[in-house]
Amino acid sequence: MMQWQTLFQKELLENWRNKKWLWVPLVLMTLTIMDPISYYFLPEIMESIGDVPEGMVLEMPAIEPEAALMMSIESLSMYGALVIVLISIGTIASERQQGITEMMLAKPIRFINYVTAKWASFVLLAIISLLLSLCMSWYYTNLLFGSVSITTMILVFIFYSIWYMFIVTLSIFYNTFCKNAGVVIAYTIGTLAILSGINALIGHRFTWFPNQLAHHIGDMLTTSSVSTALLGTAGVLVLIILILITASIQICRRKEMI
């Protein structure tokens, strides 16, 4: 346990030195509030840049607070996912390329501690950044569009954090057998793009498909209830996360590299 704590603290310190604890939350918070605020102030924005004909009154249709919140979630799904991929692309790949991994694992360091300490450090960074982002979104949603209960926001955070955990796990998985950070980001983003394409084509037939999570969260906001489909999708994602972590440890143990 002491070995795992030491490795975990090392990763936290490394992320702090790289200023990831500063820029990742700031970027995600900006993404979450950009669309709702832009929508709310769009008439004023267009008037200020002179795109509204003289005498014309531009009014945007009123939307429910749940719809405004979904704008934030969609931004987190699209652009936020890229940020989460970027924070962990070279965590193992770069160390392997520089020979650091081989030196570390030559010592009595357990593979499971090495992989899971890195995974936990990036999951913690992603989840805290997500929490701050959703709090910012909740504040502006309540301020501009209407009230959303704190209970609802807690449920959104709990379920959506599983998606970010999945993205981190996927990146760590590719890190374990790729030496090049560019290959890691290509594989990770490529996998997410393929999943998104599959979801667009046949996702409606498979309610527990991983990419259906955001859709089910939207239904939860509308109905104020947690559906079986949402629980099932979250369960599938947790299972995939466990499988990928186990595979990452095994690959690292065998030192299989591409």
Identify low-pLDDT runs.
Answer: none
Report on the biggest sheet: none
Mean pLDDT: 85
Identify the quaternary structure here: single chain
Number of strands: 0
Class by helix and strand content? mainly alpha
What sort of overall outline do the alpha carbons produce when their principal axes are compared?
Answer: globular
Proportion of residues in β-strands: under 5%
Q: How far is the N terminus from the C terminus? A: 31 Å
Summarize the helix and strand pattern as letters: HHHHHHHHHHH
Number of domains: 1
Radius of gyration: 21 Å
| Number of contiguous helices | 11
Instruction: Give the helix proportion (percent range).
Output: over 70%
What does this structure look like?
By secondary structure, this protein is mainly alpha-helical. The chain has one domain. It has 11 helices and no strands. It has helices spanning 2-17, 20-40, 42-48, 65-87, 93-97, 100-106, 111-144, 150-177, 181-202, 213-223, 228-254. The two termini are 31 Å apart. The mean pLDDT is 85.
Fill in the keyword field for this structure.
mainly alpha; globular
Layout of helices and strands, plus pairs?
Elements: H1 2-17, H2 20-40, H3 42-48, H4 65-87, H5 93-97, H6 100-106, H7 111-144, H8 150-177, H9 181-202, H10 213-223, H11 228-254
Helix pairs in contact: 1-7, 2-4, 2-7, 4-7, 4-10, 7-8, 7-11, 8-9, 8-10, 8-11, 10-11
